[in-house]
Amino acid sequence: MRVMVSGSVSRGKLAGLAVVFLWFFIGGIAHFVATETEMTIVPPYIPVPRAAVLVSGVFELLGAAGLLWRPARRLAGIGLFLLTLAVTPCHIYMLQQPELFPAIPLWALWLRLPVQAALLALIAWCTVPPRREDNPLSYYRAV
To answer: Model's pTM, two decimal places?
Structure first.
């Protein structure tokens, strides 16, 4: 039995949305507060690392905000999912060059990949509208 709160959002999805919101809201702010630090994880083959960090920070904040507005939630989820995929080269770069990140233990660099996979699953799960019970092929904006 699903417990519904806040209209038609289950408690589980509401908790998932809260985690995803906080992840990207705090992360987006970090792109502006710690721009130089964020730039260090940008692989050297990506041109203009400062712009990459600032633009991705803007998209993280826009995506987080979009999660709060029900009509935009699905689109925000798609955007955050794609953005999460887009930053994968940064995680791989850190694994390839761990000596450049001595403050981060190697196990933590490896842990980032499954955490990222879990984040992708959470984004997809909590931003996909539920199927209507009377028509399992249709979707509606219930979440």
So the answer is: 0.85
